Amino acid sequence: MKQLLSRLKPYSIFIFFVFMLLLTFPQNLSKSSESSRNAIITTVGIDKKEENYELTLISFTPTAGKEFVEVYDLISSEGDSISSALKKAELNLGRVIEFYHTENLVIGKEAQDDIVEILDYFVKDKTLAFSSVIVGTENSAKEFLTKLHKQNDNPSAIINELMLHNSKSIYYRKPTIEDFFSGYYSPLKTSYIADLGVNAEEEDEQSESQSGESSKSSRKIIKNTGEVRMFKDGKMVYKLSPDEVNGLNWFQDSITNRYIKVEKDGKIKMYHMDNKAVDKKVEIKDNQPIFKLNLKIHIDKQEIQEFGRKHVEVKELTNKEQDLIKESIRNEIKQSIDKIIEFKGGNQVYEKFYREERIKFKKFLNSLENIDDFLSKVIFEIKIDLLDD
Amino acid sequence: MKETITTRQTAIMASILLFANKILTLPSLLYEYAKGDVLLIFLMMFAIDIGVLFIFFALKKKYKDKSFFTLLSEKLTRPIAIIIYLSLLVYFFLEILVNYNVTGIYFKTQIYHNDEKIIFIVLTLAIFAVTAAGGFRGLGRTVEFFYYPIILGASICILISFFNFREPLVLFDSTAKSFFIGAFKHALTFGDSFILFLLMDKIQYDEKAKKKILCYVLITMGIVLLIVFMFLSIFQNTAFLHSSAISDIILLSPEIFSIGRLDIIAVTTVMFLTLCQISIYGYILSDLIKNIFPRISRNVCIFIVIVVFLLLYALVFNTADVVIDSARSWGIYLAIFTQYIVPVISSFFLIGKKKEAQT
Amino acid sequence: MFFDVDKKINDLMTELHNSEDVSSRFFDNGNIRLGMIFLKSMTDDALFSDAIYKPIKEFKGEITVENLINRILINGAVNEIKQEEVIDKILKGNVVIFLSNDEKIIAADIEDFIMRVPTEPPTSPVIRGPREGFTEDIKTNISLLRRRFYTKEFVVKSYSVGKYSQTKVCLVYLNGIADQKIVQEIEKKIKKIDIDGVVDAYYVGKFLEERPKSLFKQVGNAEKPDIIAGKILEGRVGIIVDGSPIVLTFPFVFFEDMQNSNDYYTNNHYATYIRFIRLFGYMLSVIACGAFLALRLFHYNVIPTKFLITIANTTQVIPFTPFIELLFIILLFQILYEVSLRLPSYLGLATSIVGALILGETGVNAGLISPPGVIVVALAKIAVYTLPEQAPQITVLQILFLFLGGCFGLYGVVAGIFYLVNYLNRIDSYGAPYLAPYSPRVCSDLKDAMIKKSLVDMKKRPMSFENQNIVRQK
Q1: Does one domain contain both C47 and C154?
Q2: Which residues pair with A136 in a beta bridge?
Q3: Residue C383 has pLDDT above 90, yes or no
Q4: What was the pLDDT predicted at B1?
Q5: Are the C-beta atoms of C193 and C207 separated by less than 8 Å?
Q6: Across the interface, do C323 and A70 touch by the CB < 8 Å criterion?
Q7: Residue among B107, B137, B276 whose CB faces C411 most closely
Q8: Do A116 and A255 reside in the same domain of the chain?
Q9: Domain membership flag for residue C261
Q10: Do the Cβ atoms of C377 and C289 come closer than 8 Å?
Q11: Does the pLDDT value for residue B358 go beyond 70?
């Protein structure tokens, strides 16, 4: 024995490694791949029905074949909590449900009141990535996803397509879970999510075509409404209309391309803005916060559209035209700010003051009864320059 | 022949220890106390670390080839040296348990969602045993080899995180009390420069050593600060939700990077970092035992460390909560004693030497 | 005094077991009788006739040992030898001559056997640069090196190794550049070798390695004189073994295999790029299979969704678990590789068709193996040949990393890399750290490591190991 041990001594480390490997080897040799044990969920929909939660999951179903195909199943389950609904879905699916590959989370109208709890659960307990996109809908998430699933096997691709565009034109930042929480945990507790809706007309056509033939229509039945849902303290308080969203977008550096609608004497003219520069400054004078917004806008003179007429080309904008454009922009901004004041938002303005005039701003906040009202006390000085070529 | 490491390897060892522990949960935990001033806590603690480094430089210059244990024995008597070394043993076991738990949780949440901790224990102990038995020179070279991959991994993470950069950091936003409480509560995670004292007899100290070590340490500190800065700038209000800074800073990478989970870069970097750190700690632990019980062979010391670690893990520190609680209660005092008070005590050896010279 | 030449020849014939190729000739002019013995298989018949027999026959004066050496046998090496050297000389292609009037013995070298001419070695073809390669003849090999060093400092030391083979082993180096301690240590080790026979250079190499039981090679080797000359100029010591076209060099560091002779005959920027490709290929070949298995068994969350969908679809009907599937593909590949290596080239082609087309394609179609598995293994196996010198160890490492990835996931693979580096860091080759110039870092050697600087920038010889003269150019 002693001889054997001394002979094995030089190889002790190697033997140790082999032993370690052997410890786990048999178990792993017979282990199937994770993708066959776990479900690959690409989109999750959550609805609330009275006191129950309904989960709608779009799950990838592996399909063997010579050609590459992507088959997705729609599974829904109900439970008195999300975890119990999830358990039922796991039983239906026969696989463990993980959300590592989930890109979108659709929250139905009723469930939007519990959005914080829902997101908290998915992020902390179910490994949903903070970068997943949240989508709100006026319909139920199940209805939304069912229709989307009928149109295209993988709804996440369509949602991403729409949201990717949307993220460039909606107020605030990319509508991810991280952004939602960032707003929720800010002093004003205001957050925003984007809205997608079902296109009613397309829906009808879809059902007609389905009665005639079984092939799926390529036309989209989902639309980007351009609306944004505003949440205060985790509860939905208001849905910003596309015009109001546009009004807020004047504060955004990133959105540089849009049409400006000018209405005069019943005539509508559309001016194309092809570039924009935003300069934001804040100051507090005698406990009065002033937000200075300086916009430098470039109008594409080759693309001015009068209602009912073809595009017209002008060499120069008249002073009157310029004033009308500026007036239109001011109105848009004012309407949007009024709504934000009404529903006690204004994270970006708050942050700007806090960063640049912290001491004075704190003093100003202390003078308020409720900091949620701060935006109503802020004076907005808006200066607009229309640039020539 | 005594195994020694080069000055560069020493500098890298100090840098690796400085790097590890600080780029996962620490920024998030400190945010609860100090908001954006977390960066200032890091700066303050790093400044103290550099101060400790200067004590080490002076000590090493005076007592070239003496081991720290011999020095303590000569100056403070052997029983006191043994007591200090025993407290160091407890400190390093706690440190290794904290690291093991923090990284274990990190790996579990990032990639090992369904698997047992046994994988980490088995591999970590195996690597520790192999590297410690392989000698200090091999360990020094190994750490040196992995320094650039680690720095590269961290730099890639920082680079990607620039795409998520939101707003500049708001500094001086916390109260002095919460600032210092934050620093105090997480004392165990800082103060790594002290480790060089324990290895002082195994370091080849050339003329440029001071400059070299400071250079590497400052570069590493810069990278850590950059990670912390990016983390706080990106998350701010939600910083407390994100418990793994280096992975989370690349979490929101834009569409162009949507080629999968890029945090695999961070995970791999942390893996190498952890293995380097565990190996160094493991070697130091076995060295501490060897100093206290000089008759025991190195391999037996390694065996003792493994057995004690397993016993501590199985019987006392079997959950992360127990470990973290210990680190934030009695562990703080132990850390302050070993990391800061012991170096300060040893700085008196310098004064003593001067007097001897004058007489 | 008269010596019985016939008896001496007969005794030697008996001692050589009257082997078929042992031949003897006698010459008698009445005054003196000469006995000559040699091996027909090792000597040139024409040379014997023209350079030995004919001059003796035609010589008019008295045949003495002095005359034989200085006046008669003037072609080639002729020496007076001792009795105990006789057998050795005969075996090495000498004709041994006994004289009836003198007890002295003479050996004349007329060695000649079938030899390959120096051609381009199949293992290291070059686009630019010299195409000649070493042959199995030690003399040719030495002359190939000599032609590159017209200096008295080029030293060749010869030893005889192997109880039965008595193989000639030559140690070559540049005096004044190579470290004498290294030379002496190698000499000592060569002299210590006590083996029955040496068939190839690797036999000697194994005895000179510091860790002969290690998986990793610790000896540099090349089949081309330009490569060996380059290494000798760096201060390394070359070992030439008779009968082997491979010349060994010591000390050896891992990054030597990253270098290729092509790198030195091309643009240094391109060489740098190619070295990174080689490193990438090396890493890919070692860890690809293990990492892929780890991802499939432990970390499916890390795989991008699109790729995961492809994997899930293609592995849906595979009857094996991922571990067994990959193991199966690797073993299948290795079997095909071995078969194609051993078979004649016309059959090798058939094997590759059977392997690639029939087994691979049909295996995938039949659902026995999955395309991603085949792709990963094929990639790993092809990438091995970015560093052909390391191929044997890479092949073993592939399997080890497959097990690590399969049993412990990505942490296992990373821990494997860590251990590997730690292990290699503990190996020294005659004072040269195995992973130099990276760990420990040797600044001046970085000029010819992963990043290759221009030749004009390489002012110093490698400092990873001892050199007598560091300055290479001024």
Answers
A1: no
A2: A107, A195
A3: yes
A4: 55
A5: yes
A6: no
A7: B107
A8: no
A9: no
A10: yes
A11: no
